[in-house]
Design brief:
CATH superfamily of the largest domain: Tetracycline Repressor, domain 2
Organism: Aeromicrobium phragmitis
Shape: elongated
Distance between the termini: 67 Å
Oligomer: single chain
CATH class of the largest domain: Mainly Alpha
GO molecular function, one term: DNA-binding transcription factor activity
Number of helices: 10
Number of domains: 2
Number of strands: 0
Keywords: DNA-binding, Repressor, Transcription, Transcription regulation
Largest sheet: none
Structural class: mainly alpha
Protein name: TetR family transcriptional regulator
Strand content: under 5%
Length: 200
């Protein structure tokens, strides 16, 4: 059987997709370049040709994951004229009780853990992985302008929402007892209300 020839970009994508599946199954700490090469069905040389190490692969996985997971969510929120509804469209998918969402938070947990060891890891990718937070800021800005939200700094408020969502998502990814998807959504909605309601 003849092996299909892929372009360098396609081969790189193949490695990234394989790395995602291995990291979700084993965690970053349990993932080696050899594991990724085996999952991608390529040689070690192919992996090291495209990536310098596991941390660089994780960064590529996170970029792809961010674009895949948040792309349609952000598009829907930007198209929604009602700011409260737009924020709901941004928040609810983060806490769906689904394997894909659980995998998403496992990847993010591993990424943030890696960033604590190498803070420079996130610098080059900040704009590409913060789609959700940037959309929150845009949504809050138009909500404030319309008088729907209280007068807050949109970027500060978006960062607070991102920090709270990351905390809840990470706890969910770690399987903390009692923190169901429904409960996480309720807590996130409560936080949004406390932060932005003009009646508070």
């Amino acid at each position: 059987m003849t092996r299909q020839r892929l372009s360098p970009a396609e081969r790189r994508e193949q490695v990234v997709q394989a790395a995602r599946s291995v990291i979700v199954q084993r965690g970053l700490a349990g993932t080696s370049l050899r594991d990724i090469a085996a999952a991608a069905q390529v040689s070690m040389g192919t992996v090291t040709y495209h990536f310098s190490g596991v941390d660089e692969i994780l960064s590529a996985v996170v970029i792809a994951e961010s674009e895949r997971f948040y792309g349609s969510v952000v598009a829907a929120a930007d198209a929604e004229p009602d700011a409260w509804r737009a924020l709901q469209l941004l928040v609810d998918p983060l806490f769906d009780d689904a394997p894909d969402v659980e995998a998403h938070w496992r990847i993010w947990s591993d990424f943030w853990a890696a960033v604590t060891r190498r803070p420079d890891m996130a610098d080059a990718y900040a704009q590409r992985i913060r789609h959700w937070e940037a959309c929150c800021a845009r949504t809050i800005e138009r909500g404030v302008a319309a008088g729907t939200f209280r007068a807050v700094d949109p970027e500060d408020a978006a960062l607070k929402l991102a920090a709270y969502a990351d905390g809840l998502g990470t706890q969910r990814g770690q399987g903390v007892p009692g923190l169901t998807a429904e409960r996480a959504r309720a807590w996130m909605s409560e936080f949004v209300e406390l932060l932005l309601s003009p009646d508070r």
